[in-house]
């Protein structure tokens, strides 16, 4: 077993004297590797190094088009190593191989997409008065901190790191303690190709090294993906140093199905939206809002699909993998065990024992018909393969229910009526609304972020570069 060291100041940090954290394979319950339990001293060293790298002639001499060329080269490197990276991602998270491979391609697309923007971040000239030349210049924001969650580690690392490097910043990535493998793989590549300190990879617990990083006065910007409580803590910590944050904090996203919807088209998308990555997705379609006139028909189709979903490890070519760790596994089972008596579990709702993988964390994909949209399991993010169903009577009630949570990340609207589609989409409080579909493969070009407690700011698309620049106005008085 090769232990994973941190990359700080151009060197691999992790001696036998360090404290180490076990990384567990959720599919088997077995030890994969160990990571360094990073601390405040490690955090400070990384930030100080990043600040030196930001000002170094070596990094400043990288022209924008050269940064773009490097990002293109990174995309090619990821694709050349796609099989190895997909195996690591599956090992780390337990997700099916096909999903892991899709994540690797999405990561390559992020580097490819932002490579094309590296030399196209333009300023403006502003007409003020004769003999005054006024221009805006887009400067890098500085030392950027990227706190990556465990559910899509390579994708989420790629989407913010690529934008930050494209705009000339330096990067510190803090991996989840559960899923460090693919980021460590990329760290080795950056270590070989970039000046010392431009990219650094730290590991450990969020409450320890994560907190030390978010509160460090040398950090200029923070991108965080994770839970609402942790996001609030990150934001409070950043506020002490007046540091901007980009937060993506999850959701309780609805699929809204009207009576004229094409159910043969909707059913596979609804199923995939909640069981992909075992429901451990911020944008999971965890609520189903359905017109009461077709509810029985749609529910019957979904229950039949859920019954035939194969649960197990990647090695078994399963469609639904394990829950990430024992703590989350027990939390989901506890929620399922305390469902309101008025609610009805239509399928699933229990743990699954997979032969040969008895120590893995498996849960049967579950559909619950809620008695009330205010039921706690309808309102709270469960982060597992659990779908809540609520019926509605008309368009206005559908919109009201769609908006009746603290979140607003993604929504799906299913109807053949273009008027209904536009009317509903314009009134749903959500960062993304899909009509007769749900999600997009990678969705690199689409801005992604949420309303309400789903977060602040937007990632993906050309808009994400705004997170990593600051605008300087220069006014030149011309005199002869």
TrEMBL record:
UniProt KW keywords: Oxidoreductase
Domain Aldehyde dehydrogenase: 12-474
Catalytic residues of the enzyme: 248
Highest taxon above the source species: Bacteria
GO molecular function terms attached to this record: oxidoreductase activity, acting on the aldehyde or oxo group of donors, NAD or NADP as acceptor
Pfam families: Aldedh
Key word S-adenosyl-L-methionine present: no
Keyword Amino-acid biosynthesis annotated: no
Xref: InterPro entries: Ald_DH/histidinol_DH, Ald_DH_C, Ald_DH_CS_CYS, Ald_DH_CS_GLU, Ald_DH_N, Aldehyde_DH_dom
Similarity comment: family membership: Belongs to the aldehyde dehydrogenase family.
Annotated protein name in UniProt: Aldehyde dehydrogenase family protein
Organism: Psychrobacillus soli
